[in-house]
Amino acid sequence: MKQKLQTMPRVPSAFAWILVLSLVFNQFAIGNISAHMGMGIPLSFGALFGIAPAHAAEIVMPMLNTDGKTTNLQFMPTISPPSTTKSKSLVGQAQATMTGQGAPFYAPQGIRFEDPIGAQSAWGSYEKLPLSSDLEARYQRLIDQFTCNFCCGSPADVTKNRFCACAHAQAARGFFRYLLKTYSNTYTDKQLFGEAYRWQAAWYPRGAAEDYLLATGHGDVLGHKTHGGAGADGFHGMMK
Fold this sequence. Notes:
Elements: H1 14-39, H2 45-48, E1 58-64, E2 71-77, H3 90-98, H4 116-124, H5 133-145, E3 147-148, E4 159-160, H6 167-183, H7 189-203, H8 205-215
Antiparallel strand pairs: 1-2, 3-4
Helix pairs in contact: 3-8, 4-6, 5-6, 6-7, 7-8
């Protein structure tokens, strides 16, 4: 009598594994797309394993709500990439994502992220730079939307950049004027907002890191000290 051969379990082929990984990656991609359409915080492999996600040219920043007094946290594109500093801590990752590194290509000589005080003074010197009428109109729109979150105003009444007399606000106005004068319409308003806020993160590293951690689901790491525009709850309308 012939013995019945015992069949071995079939090992998934390389193609099958590739298909499974592709489906998993696709789900994460859908999560990121949904988030950028206003349907939630982006989901990433980093977030899944408890690591704050880092985007190549993107940060988290407060943007005005329709009430003109409070802000919400949004992902915003930047011009320069984040710092390449590696850190195993969530705080270190947040700070590296929010802060630039070295001398960005667009900046006048001597302006570096590693010298925030010197950069603040240098950018401020461009506040009176003349612009064409169309660029001046665009500049006025930018400073009417960009907010000063950590020095002035209150949680329920944030100060717009145009009304802030602090040195960092002057630096932001000089930054906008210089970029508009030098690069005209090369960059979008969103990129200018994001890049200007990268400098704010250099001047207010803890506040910027707190907002980033809050927006990426790690608000309990540093806590969140309320600041201008953070709203009555102190958390930009988000839960801890």
